[in-house]
Design brief:
The chain has helices spanning 5-24, 29-35, 72-75, 104-108, 129-148, 154-157, 164-180, 193-204, 221-227, 283-295, 307-323, 341-350, 360-364, 368-372, 374-377, 383-388, 406-415, 435-441, 444-449, and strands at 39-42, 45-47, 55-56, 58-62, 65-70, 84-87, 92-95, 97-102, 183-191, 211-216, 238-246, 299-304, 332-335, 353-357, 393-396, 467-470, 487-492, 495-499. It is of the alpha/beta class. The strands form 3 sheets. An 8-stranded parallel β-sheet has the order 8-9-10-11-12-13-14-15. Strands 3-2-7-16-17-18 form a 6-stranded mixed β-sheet, covered by helices on one side. Strands 5-4-1-6 form a 4-stranded mixed β-sheet.
Length: 505
């Protein structure tokens, strides 16, 4: 049916007025019809993590979503009378940092902020061999005790809060500290149900400003199966991804499980020449747990440091995939520090993700070669080799075992040096990552780790507006200055969640 002549005239008049007003206000016609942004960031240096559009100057945001990325002149078109305009003044902008392995909630929920202690603040301590060896001795005794009891370290290291309500003050304090560091998503490895309930309370009260992905301890597996909870439940703020398992110890106290005996005799429990560490469960036991979680649609994250532990875990993953094929399972090896070439091939073939810790190499460099010997060191802490082989990796801190700050972690994984610049050329410098590779580990690759690469992890149209503004351009400054960089602003879902008090933004 033809439109009446008067309707056509009205349509032409309204359309003309929209175009006229748009031109007068420096906004294109499409913007004037409803694409005015709530917030725009202009005149910056933006690393997007988008391989198709890696660099930009400006971003437009509407509600919690990025609606445009481009040059400053292009993004000015999204400015309306009520748009918040932030001049970046040439500052470097990156996607919000994501920590793929932490125990943040475990630490925060037991914290009393009134004590004045801040466990989240990064503090550099000189390495002291006597203190470090005593710490490793105590930890080794703990590992052997829990193994003798038929437990794993999860049974004594991850303590639930007395109640969800009691945990809130510590989590609120910790959340602010993470936002100060530019962390917008945290993965909790080994959470209890009380941790989930505490974060749920914050969310219900509108106080949650940090995205949380949780892996519960194995004791919750049957409950999760009964409740029908899968990795796809929840939303972008709070999700139970799956289950955390624990296969072996750590190289420091010589409790990581190796295929061959340790190269040294550091502790008295190594008296047996065939001693090769601790394996907390046999193959049949882990096969059963992994298969149950896999069939329930849960993601499985398993602590595995030694090559024997990784082999046993990969066997369990392969068994589960044989019974229920799923090419997009994204199960992980947490730490994956000693991987012979045959294990790397299996990891890639199975589609397993390696969740690596940015600071581990520079912490373990004081004892790793002594424990492993030079031959095994050729495929230990081999982060660059793993990426070059096409293995999917994600990055994290393992706080509170390690320092939480992503910028400190980036400096250490890029330089393979401690913060004093030692060793001079880096520890096994052929395994140094580029700054961009390190950034990807804690942005888009961590988003892939939680099945969320389509909604976050990069600065792209249609994704959540989780952004970090830095005081220095970490892509251009000398790598040994990265840890001195300050987060000037953190944005989560289009809202400014933190601003550095001395920022001129």
């Amino acid at each position: 049916m033809r439109k009446p002549f008067c309707v056509l005239l009205t349509s032409l008049f309204v359309g003309g007025m929209v175009s006229f007003l748009a031109a007068c206000n420096g906004v294109d016609e499409e913007t004037a019809r409803g694409e005015v942004a709530d917030t725009v960031l202009l005149d910056g240096k933006i690393w997007t993590a988008d391989e198709q559009n890696p660099a930009a100057e400006a971003v437009a945001i509407k509600a919690d979503e990025i609606v445009a990325v481009g040059s400053t002149s292009e993004i000015r078109k999204y400015v309306g009378s009520d748009t918040q305009v932030i001049s970046l003044q040439g500052k470097r902008v990156v996607p919000g940092f994501q920590d793929s392995h932490s125990h943040f909630l475990a630490a925060a929920s037991l914290l009393d902020p009134l004590t004045g202690r801040n466990p989240f603040e990064p503090v550099y301590s000189e390495y002291n061999e006597l203190t470090a060896r005593f710490t490793r001795l105590l930890l080794g005794l703990s590992h052997h005790f829990v193994n003798w009891m038929g437990w794993t370290p999860l049974d004594i290291l991850i303590i639930p809060p007395a109640s969800p309500e009691q945990a809130l003050s510590g989590i609120r304090f910790g959340m602010h500290e993470l936002l100060k560091m530019g962390i917008t998503t945290i993965f909790e490895l080994g959470a209890h149900w009380e941790h989930y309930e505490a974060v749920s309370l914050l969310k219900e009260r509108g106080e949650l400003k940090l995205r949380c992905d949780l892996f519960l301890t194995p004791e919750h597996l049957d409950e999760l199966v009964e409740r029908g909870i899968t990795r796809h439940d929840g939303d972008e703020w709070l999700r139970i991804l799956g289950i955390k398992l624990y296969s072996d110890g750590w190289l420091g106290p010589r409790t990581a499980s190796l295929r061959e005996p340790y190269a040294d005799r550091e502790f008295f429990w190594q008296n047996d020449p065939e001693y090769s560490g601790i394996l907390y469960f046999d193959q049949e036991e882990i096969n059963n747990d992994v298969l149950k979680a896999h069939e329930a649609g849960l993601k499985i994250a398993t602590h595995a440091i030694g090559d024997k532990a990784s082999e046993v875990v990969l066997n369990a993953y392969e068994n589960a995939l044989y019974h229920l094929p799923n090419p997009d399972h994204r199960h992980t090896l947490e730490h994956a520090q000693v991987l012979a070439p045959d294990l790397m091939k299996r990891i890639k073939k199975l589609g397993v993700i390696c969740s690596i810790q940015l600071s581990f190499a520079t912490t373990d460099m004081h004892f790793a070669e002594k424990a492993l010997g030079s031959e095994r060191m050729s495929h230990a802490y081999a982060w660059k080799t793993m990426l070059d082989e096409g293995i999917r990796c994600a990055g994290g801190s393992d706080f509170a075992v390690e320092v939480l700050s992503p910028l400190w972690g980036i400096q250490r994984i890029v330089t393979r040096q401690d913060l004093n610049g030692l060793p001079e050329n880096g520890w096994y410098p052929d395994q140094c990552l580029s700054v961009e590779e390190a950034l990807r580990l804690i942005t888009i690759d961590s988003a892939y780790n939680s099945f969320e690469e389509d909604i976050k992890g990069s600065i792209e149209v249609g994704k959540l507006a989780d952004l970090v503004v830095l005081s220095q351009d970490i892509l251009e400054i000398p790598p040994n200055q990265i840890a001195d960089t300050v987060v000037e602003m953190t944005m989560v879902g289009g809202e400014i969640a933190y601003v550095w008090p001395d920022s001129a933004l």
